[in-house]
Design goal:
This protein has 286 residues and is α/β, with parallel strands linked by helices. 36% of the residues lie in helices and 23% in strands. It has helices spanning 14-38, 55-63, 77-90, 136-145, 168-174, 178-181, 197-203, 224-238, 247-257; strands spanning 45-49, 69-74, 95-100, 113-119, 147-162, 207-219, 272-283.
Length: 286
Amino acid sequence: MVNREENNQIEVSASELHTHQKIHSLREPAIRAAINTLNLPRGSYGLDAGCGIGLITHMLSEAISPGGYVIGLDLSADFVIYANNQLEKIHSPHGVSFQEGDVNSLPFNDHTFDWVWSADTLWPGPPETGCPSDDPFAMVKELARIVKPGGTLAILFWSSQKLLPGHPLLEARLNMTSQATAPFIQGMNPEQHILRGLSWLRDAGLGEVKAHTFIADVSTPLNDSIQDALLVTFNMFWGNSENEVPQDDWNEFNRICRPESPDFILNNPDYYAFLTYTMFYGKVVF
């Protein structure tokens, strides 16, 4: 059997990379605002749990430079290989490394890090939907375990979006589909919804627990990167919803959300849209 890591090969699909890279340009202002709010100490030691291909990991390392160090951890060996390959290419002056690991059983001793960050990872839900666990309390408790007393734990989620200005009814109906509400499904405990994050941290024993929502907005003229990010986002939330909305709604979605359409919404000279990220954070007190 070929050892993928020994041969430095990467098997992350082009579509996965495209989604991570394109979406990042859209969400980056909100992510940076969240990082700045934490005021992470210069020279500190932190973990980015669920780092994906490492885009946010580098932002975190910039925030604690000089002298800081961030480990990016992800369950996907392919993401970790890709992130390490990119690290070699860019010769980052900041302290960063990447390794494979599971947020449910972190490969670190108690009280290892000054802070732990996790963005778009601790989505509670059925394992068959790709969620790491259906128990948010257990995941938060495990993250808190590796933070030094007095250190910070922060979890961040994409929490809302308004992307179809002038079409509020269509957007509302699209947002009722399973793709847009995933991984939350009918019958799940309300405590498993991401906006209940304050209770997750409190129940895990954290103190000084807070929540804050950050906005990233865009308006015309849209550069190519933002246009691409919005197209990826349209597809991510609604692209497979044809069987869950009336045919008229699906036709309208295609009319305004496909670049080949003469009514493509991103060609509107007054286009404006936004998304929000919500962060729940607190201090480890044990």
